[in-house]
Design brief:
four-stranded antiparallel sheet; 5 helices; about 25% helix; single chain; elongated; Cyclophilin
Length: about 260
């Protein structure tokens, strides 16, 4: 049964214009990224004339208000009430509908992203640690649906939830100095995509050319909290490019 473990929502002013809202803790079966996305939309829908921006976190929201529109006591009370209403309504709907759940996409469109798995950065090592063949690892990974928790670490880097427990691996003992742009990687309970070359300690499974951040676009980041992503292999699994162990690209990228 889906339930909130810690029911109290804590909201407090952390700057003269910013309200920090800590949401309750939830069972693991709840898609927190989807729920936080719903809460964000719900606040915008009811307080659009007051709110300048809402920044999502792993289990929290930062609500930034237009300075001239702030009423400290009333705004805090309204935000808490709206968040409780959104969470309770969402969970109640989930419990009533056996075919709809906050654990899946909930009817949201899924963005499918192509991934090149031909360069074995960490793919073979991860497959061995999970006791899977290379092809089985790619197939199982591409069968998953991930929800965007937030953009963080660098512009456009998306933290994704939805990685099953048997895929959870600790970060690399020695991080790479250079992780290629577009790296699709996993660490701990998360999947992530590196929008540009940078240092990093996650296990790289493949590379995508999907543009994650473009400052020239009206909305620079490609994804927002609650969006749903599924990966697919750029090359079919039964082709030579995806059955050989090509390590040359890794050495070039890390030089």
């Amino acid at each position: 049964m889906t339930r909130i473990v810690k029911q109290r929502i804590v909201a407090q002013w952390v700057t003269p214009t910013t309200l920090h809202c800590e949401l309750g803790e939830f069972d693991d079966c709840v898609n927190k990224a989807m729920l936080i996305g719903l809460c964000r939309t719900h606040l915008y829908a009811h307080m659009a004339l007051k709110i300048a921006d809402i920044v999502p976190g792993f289990n929290e929201l930062l609500v930034q208000f237009i300075p001239s529109e702030i009423d400290y006591y009333d705004d805090l009370q309204q935000v808490e009430q709206l968040l409780k209403q959104c969470i309770n309504d969402s969970l109640a709907t989930t419990l009533k509908q056996t075919d709809v759940s906050l654990t899946d996409a909930g009817g949201k469109a899924i963005t499918r992203i192509p991934v090149d798995f031909s360069a074995d950065y960490d793919l073979v090592d991860v497959a061995e640690r999970l006791a899977l063949s290379r092809a089985d690892l790619i197939a199982q990974f591409c069968a998953l649906e991930f929800s965007v928790i937030l953009n963080g670490f660098m512009p456009g880097f998306v933290y994704l939830s939805g990685l099953p427990e048997n895929f959870h691996l600790p970060r690399l003992a020695t991080p790479r100095l250079h992780v290629p742009a577009g790296s699709v990687a996993i660490a701990d309970a998360y999947c992530g995509i590196y929008p540009q070359r940078s240092p990093g300690g996650w296990h790289i499974l493949g590379i995508t050319e999907h543009v994650l951040f473009d400052i020239q676009r009206p909305t620079p980041a490609s994804f927002a909290t609650g969006d749903v992503i599924q990966f697919y292999p750029l090359t079919p699994l039964n082709t030579p490019a995806n059955t050989s162990n090509n390590t040359s690209k890794m050495s070039k990228a890390c030089d």
